[in-house]
Amino acid sequence: MASLGVNIDHIANIREARRTVEPDPVPMAMLAELGGADGITVHLREDRRHIQDRDVELLRQTVRSRLNLEMAATAEMVAIALKVKPDMVTLVPEHRQEVTTEGGLDVVAQLSELTAMVSQLQASDIPVSLFVDPVTTQLQGCRDSGARWVELHTGRYADAGWKAQPHELARLTEGTATARVMGLRVNAGHGLTYQNVEPVAAIPGMEELNIGHTIVARAVVVGLQQAVREMKALIQNPRRDPLFGQALE
Ligand code: PXP
């Protein structure tokens, strides 16, 4: 049965929209764990548009499941990972203008640089996963890099209409089987939702799904009524001490 890695970048996205301190992804990670998350995933982007260095440092101290650090394959990020020591590093492609990660890594084109980074991280006991499309040549590159894990990009499956979706699911299923035969362990993620996750979770050999946006979106939906109720109660009951919740005399 596949496990669940919860990506909490979107919580930091809301905070950074106002450059304030709330919502803080650190306590939210604890709530995700209480909800059953088997791991917490964050992407420390080079432009720091959502997750900040401070978040990663605090999450390293507080996450009780597993901390998966997504990052670009750069010397700056490798230095951070070696310092923070997450439970896994997932190397992803990164472009300044993109809204979110688009497409998998071209491992074949960057094999020598990636091989050096994988060996540096794995020498420090940090397992490395490479985020790739389910394409055999790329999986061969992953194996050749020395990485022990891949994360298959599910974006094309998620974006496909109902006609193309079975084909995209078959690509993920075959990609998983091919990677396993090569000795790689397999995660997947990107664009998975409450509507489309089940067939991917059922792929034989699939170990973990990394899911973010749909969970944070759902949290807003199921939590909004309560949040409004609490604000209304504060406004309508000004005799309440805002810090301690006790009635003021
Ligand atoms: N896996 C990777 C490598 C990602 O870059 C992302 C997006 O940050 C995810 C999983 C989660 O994608 P989503 O937010 O669409 O669930």
CATH architecture: Alpha-Beta Barrel
CATH class division: Alpha Beta
User: Termini distance?
Assistant: 56 Å
**Share of residues in helices:** 40-55%
In the predicted model, the low-confidence regions spanning at least 5 consecutive residues are none
β-sheet strand percentage: 15-25%
User: If strands are numbered along the chain, what order do they take across the biggest sheet?
Assistant: 1-2-3-4-5-6-7-8
Q: What is the CATH superfamily?
A: Aldolase class I
- Which small molecules are bound? pyridoxine-5'-phosphate
Helix/sheet category: alpha/beta
Please outline the major beta sheet. 8 strands, parallel, barrel
Helical region count? Answer: 10
Number of domains: 1
Assembly type: single chain
CATH topology: TIM Barrel
Q: Would you report the number of β strands?
A: 8
* Rg, Cα atoms, Å: 20 Å
Structure description:
With 249 residues, the chain is α/β, with parallel strands linked by helices. The protein has a single domain, classed as Aldolase class I (TIM Barrel). Strands 1-2-3-4-5-6-7-8 form an eight-stranded parallel barrel, surrounded by seven helices. The chain is globular and about 65 Å long. The protein starts with a strand and ends in a 13-residue tail after the last helix. Pyridoxine-5'-phosphate binds next to strand 8 and helix 10. The site of pyridoxine-5'-phosphate has 19 residues, from strand 8 and helix 10.
